[in-house]
Amino acid sequence: MYLHEFQAKGLLREYGLPVPDGGVASTASDALRVAKELKGEKWVIKAQVHAGGRGKAGGVKIVQSFSDVYDEATHMLGMKLITHQTGEEGKIVHRILVEKATNIRQEIYLSIMVDRDNEQHILIASAEGGTEIETLAESRPDAIIKEKLSAIKAMGFYQGRKIAKKLGLKGNLLNKFSAVVVKLHQVFMDYDCMLLEINPLVVNSDNEIVCLDAKITVDDNALFRHSKIEEMKDYGEMEPQEVRASIYDLSYVSMEGNIGCMVNGAGLAMATMDIIKSFGGQPANFLDVGGGADENKVREAFRIILTDPNVKVIFVNIFGGIVRCDLIAKGVLKAANEVPSDKHVVLRLDGTNVAEGKKIINEEASASGLNIYAADTMADAAQLAVKLANEPAPDAPARKKGGNK
Q1: What's the whole-model pTM score?
Q2: 30 assigned binding-site residue
Q3: CATH class for the region spanning 104-229
Q4: Considering 52, 117, 205, 369, which has the largest number of Cβ atoms within 10 A of its Cβ?
Q5: Which of 86, 76, 84 is nearest to 46 (CA)?
Q6: For binding substrate, which residues are annotated in this chain's numbering (predicted)?
Q7: 322 is in an annotated binding site
Q8: pLDDT at 400
Q9: Which fold has domain 240-390?
Q10: Across-strand partners of 216?
Q11: Location of each CATH 3.40.50.261 domain in the chain
């Protein structure tokens, strides 16, 4: 789950971390009110969308008068912000963050993330903050500093000082920097973060460390421990299918192919997409119905997949463990009644009650004339799904009797 910048800074502020004074606004009048309350001579207006690269796309502006605050807010609110992360569809700006401008003396890049390979956290820093770290890592890898952190113990103050020295900080900035990064790691651990990025972390004209920007990603699987974070979820930033899937506790991610995937288990879902690709096909989505899938979940999963107009085939790949194959088969039959006749369903079942499940499909699908194609192995099913997806669409599709192949 992604947090907006103003939400992330709110968390940091609770830990006593230095962030600029500011406030969020959804209208130009709100933005003007915030600027007047902040006083000062310059303000920064930032679009609040879940995407990086806002500055280059016109989503970050520095203004020097109240009239400019109002005018820039009017322009920014409602605009479609297109960055390298949003693609051409862009993101509509519904909220902006208005902050008092900071006099910057030095910019530093800082992030903490999960290092899955080594089962720990890792802190990444660079003295060249404010830049895209991916580009810098490719062109000048020597400019990147990495520090391994424990995933279960708080970061040591000495580690912060070591990083500060590598960044070229001196004097009392060594302790100030260390105090900030130790608290940032505490935030990271307390909220089960996947990523915490401050770009830039700055030294201001008063020789103080300030978190000028903040990006936080929280592990969705840990939200049951963090009701406060879950309440921050911005459904307006999510794809409609993802919102609908979350209601039924389904994991859905849209992709660009034409083979819809309905699978139980994230590992099996990844394997399913891989095998589709291996046969030359393109998955249209990642959809995990989970181990406790029932008829309602299966039916809703079909409906979500079919909201994508590019889908030509739905590949159902279920391994019955907790969930029984005969129950899945019944759910698929009910859901398949809503599938347009020019689309196909490829079904592969294995596991608990697989014989009963296949019997239900073989008997009832043929009798009802549904376009359900059963396969014994995952490879056979994937190959068939790719073949059907590559067939030209019929001019006048009609429901065929005895569609089970």
Answers
A1: 0.75
A2: no
A3: alpha beta
A4: 52
A5: 76
A6: 264, 321-323
A7: yes
A8: 42
A9: Rossmann fold (3.40.50)
A10: 196
A11: 240-390
